[in-house]
Design a protein that fits this description.
The chain is 49% helix and 17% strand. The chain has 298 residues and is of the alpha+beta class. The protein has three domains: 59 residues, no CATH class; 140 residues, Reverse transcriptase/Diguanylate cyclase domain (Alpha-Beta Plaits, 2-Layer Sandwich); 84 residues, PucR C-terminal helix-turn-helix domain (Arc Repressor Mutant, subunit A), CATH 1.10.10.2840. Strands 5, 6, 7, 8, 9 and 10 form a six-stranded mixed β-sheet that branches. Strands 1-3-2-4 form a four-stranded antiparallel β-sheet.
Amino acid sequence: MLKDLSSLFPSYHKFSEYPNNTDKDVHTFHDPSSNQWIQIKKNEVSSRDFSLLSSFYTVVDLTLPSDYSLSERWTRFLQGSGELPIEAGKKIRIIQLVIKSNSFQNTDLAKAVQLFFEDAVQLVFVAPNNALLIEQKSTYTQSPEDLASFISALESDFFIKAQLFIGKFYPVDEQTPSRYALEREWFSNGIGNYFPGRIYTLESIFPTILTNEMSESLRQIIHHEVLIPIEFDTELLQTVRAFFENGFNASITSKKLHIHRNTLHYRLSKFQEITGISVRDFGGALIVYCASLLVNYE
């Protein structure tokens, strides 16, 4: 995309190192994949352009004071232009947060994070409505349930929608920015292609990535063996997918789908009768799971 911007924005300029100018009349963005920075004059960028650019690149604030805070040190480090913010070797994970609101203020999020987590995480703002929660490995780590409770609190208190990507714990070193860039790509992929959700992990997104990269020959196999026989019945696919996602537990699946347990068994039996594929073992369920993702992707 970097190659196309020069034809769209006359003032477009690319840097291989962190820009040292503090011109308030330009937007600055960082491309983690190539570790390059770009600047474009604000009067050339519409609100729609800015939203699009922000979805591909990290917005950079060049007006940082010389004694910038730990949060700002993390920002520069993850953009590839700063030193390690903490001692090398300490294990951290990066939890990415996206807020869907035009009126939500950073100060509100800062207060909410402090009240909920106290000093357990470091809040880092990376772009409008985008922030990171950096958690160091300790005797207690925030569970998915903890993070779900945090999102619920945000949504109920501020009338917003929020989504999280929970990264993996890794030692802090020179590879951390590239790992973060990869997890950022996974999160973007999940939001764009995954079924609507609030909390994402590599495990939940990986089947979608796998389906997106699937060869045409494998897609045709799924079409002929699953989708065509059931006449693209999305209700059946969603039922089998839910059964798979809930560990083949009929009781939990029935509750999640708000259907009677007998209805669940009827749908699973109907699917097996039509396709000849058993959904009560991992292999069969995996094929159908990919089929449900393929229908959603196409």
